[in-house]
Amino acid sequence: MEFKRVVITGLGTVNPLGNSIEEYWEGLKNGVSAADRITKFDVELQKTQFACEVKNFDPTIYVEKKEVRKHDLYTLYAYASAQQAIEDSGIDLETVDKDRAGVIWGAGIGGLQTFFEEARAYDVHRPKFNPFFIPKMIANIAGGLVSIRYGFRGPNFTTVSACASASHAIIEAFNYIRMGKANLFITGGSEAAINEAGLSGFNSMRALSTRNDDPKTASRPFDKDRDGFVMGEGSGALILEEYEHAVKRGARIYGEVAGGGMSADAYHMTAPDPDGKGATLVMKWALEDAGIKPEDIDYVNVHGTSTPLGDIAEPKAIQKCFGDHAYKLSISSTKSMTGHLLGAAGAVEGIASILAIKHGIIPPTINHFTDDPEIDSKLDFTFGKAKAREINYALSNTFGFGGHNATVIFKKY
């Protein structure tokens, strides 16, 4: 069958660098670190005492005050970014065919704060839970509620694949549209796991940085002295639309989704394949899906979490996938600034890739101090400062616990 073109017509985000697309892009291009001491709860006894928190978020901008308590924070973040994206797209909700509009969302954990609060309040002598406990907590509820808000009756489900969740959601939305099964989607992901349970859980795995004396520089992708990732939170939403549908209504187009790839490491519960086999495959398949050659890619927004093993495996995979062209790529990890947004990472980093194409600017990888002898220093990781470059194709990688890999390729319009 002949695939239809899929374009991006709206963007929205709430993340540690800002509560709008404009604030986010300003933070990215200026190399701002969003990491700081946690303010949401007492961290005095925590091994890690910092994270990249969303700041100055007012949910009542998006939800009536009396409704806020009915939703977990990850859902409130989803509402916010989805509303921004819808408004940005200029979609007329009165005339759009809602039977052919859907919501495919990503969440790695879902309502962790709700689960933690309810479990903490549980008493065996009075085993009573809040009636909103289950609908607030389940990982699919954000996508469901967004579809209810806008009356979109098309495909509606949630992808749960740890840190690859939002990328998988984008790929699924892309596939439905290009196969002619829908006209448009709200897609992306949200996460809100900065709480006692989330922090302690990742700490017990020794996954987080413990650089409490210097949180601003704690997220150090590809640096020799990296010691783990920095938790982030927030959401990102994209409006994907069939090209002719977008043109007919006179939509502003940011760019196109060119292709997507999915693979599994099939190696370990939490560690990446040391040779980057799954990561190599997922990039190769994304290129094949897009119908382009490795040398067509200009920019790679890497998974780049600042973990000891992951930051070695991914550059190896890039070299295997791209060959000599790997040394002509611009590469950067925006997690050095936002921290790791877990299930929302693919959406927020996909948006970074789209904005990089639009503005012709490669966001930097900040906090690099010492080269790691196990990582090829000839690769261009855009350390320190953003740089200007024409970008025709950008590739965004996300890899999750369980060995889940997803890659999305965006194209200049």
UniProtKB/TrEMBL annotation:
Keywords: Acyltransferase, Fatty acid biosynthesis, Fatty acid metabolism, Lipid biosynthesis, Lipid metabolism, Transferase
Domain Ketosynthase family 3 (KS3): 3-412
MF GO annotations: 3-oxoacyl-[acyl-carrier-protein] synthase activity
SUPFAM superfamilies referenced in this protein's UniProt entry, alphabetically: Thiolase-like (SSF53901)
Enzyme class: transferase
PROSITE patterns on file: KS3_1, KS3_2
Pfam family of the protein (one): Ketoacyl-synt_C
Matches recorded under InterPro entries: 3-oxoacyl-ACP_synth-2, Beta-ketoacyl_synthase, Ketoacyl_synth_AS, Ketoacyl_synth_C, Ketoacyl_synth_N, PKS_Beta-ketoAc_synthase_dom, Thiolase-like
Repeat in keyword set: no
Domain of life: Bacteria
Family (UniProt): Belongs to the thiolase-like superfamily. Beta-ketoacyl-ACP synthases family.
NCBIfam families: fabF, PRK07314.1
Recorded coiled-coil stretches: none
GO terms classed as biological process: fatty acid biosynthetic process
Species name: Sunxiuqinia dokdonensis
GO CC terms, sorted: cytosol
Job of this protein: Involved in the type II fatty acid elongation cycle. Catalyzes the elongation of a wide range of acyl-ACP by the addition of two carbons from malonyl-ACP to an acyl acceptor. Can efficiently catalyze the conversion of palmitoleoyl-ACP (cis-hexadec-9-enoyl-ACP) to cis-vaccenoyl-ACP (cis-octadec-11-enoyl-ACP), an essential step in the thermal regulation of fatty acid composition.
Protein name: 3-oxoacyl-[acyl-carrier-protein] synthase 2
Pathway: Lipid metabolism; fatty acid biosynthesis
